[in-house]
């Protein structure tokens, strides 16, 4: 005799299962910078990508189970190509793709015994920063319209908290990369882990490029950007420390001290 499980409990069990699967992977970050949209994901593999191009001005980033989000990526490329061929290339948008992904993931979550253990972002770069689009789609088909930055993964809230403190509109690519590295390298116990170029997958949708705006940042270029971002971050921290030391020597409370009158 089969056991009865209420629909509410069944949906809760599926959601818990998907969240645990996603949490086993590494976090990823997507954020706007002054010339487009930057994608940063810890990924030591040079063959398996977490970030990929979908269409001319649209890219896809994901966390979770690789075979599942790779199936979604391939299906999204086919959907975009078909729509662009049947209508016009301008009719392929991040919003349309996000809605399509939401329907696919929602159907799988509702009808399948096992939900997809994935979380994805679809981003589109526009002619101006105000027109950029970023959509976060979760395992159950929920869609969120994001602005500025978005973090994915099991520790997304912690990563987003660091980004909230460090992010500002109009950052350069080096500054945006530095903010992303600072967010991704933080640990729940307050410690930090070093992330080098060989452990990163970085790509960008570059506003100034015609037609296909997606490009990967690898090799010497990535190492140079990472060195600049690290140097800039260290200079900023050193400057704050020096300012605090000068204030202490003068008998003044350090900037931002709650005990200051």
Describe this structure as you would to a colleague.
- The chain has 261 residues and is α+β, with helices and mostly antiparallel strands.
- The chain is 43% helix and 21% strand.
- The protein contains six helices and ten strands.
- Strands 8-1-2-9-10 form a five-stranded antiparallel beta sheet. It has a five-stranded antiparallel beta sheet with strand order 3-4-5-6-7.
- A hairpin with a 2-residue loop joins strand 1 (28-33) and strand 2 (36-42).
- The longest helix has 31 residues, at 219-249.
- The protein is globular, with a radius of gyration of 21 Å.
- The N and C termini lie far apart (73 Å).
Features:
261 residues; disordered C terminus; alpha+beta
How confident overall, as mean pLDDT?
86
Q: Which descriptor suits the 3D outline?
A: globular
Task: Give me the Rg, rounded.
Answer: 21 Å
What is the CA–CA distance across the termini? Answer: 73 Å
The unreliable regions are: 235-250, 252-261
- Approximate helicity band: 40-55%
Order of helices and strands: HEEEEHHEEEEHHEEH
Class based on secondary structure composition and strand pairing? alpha+beta
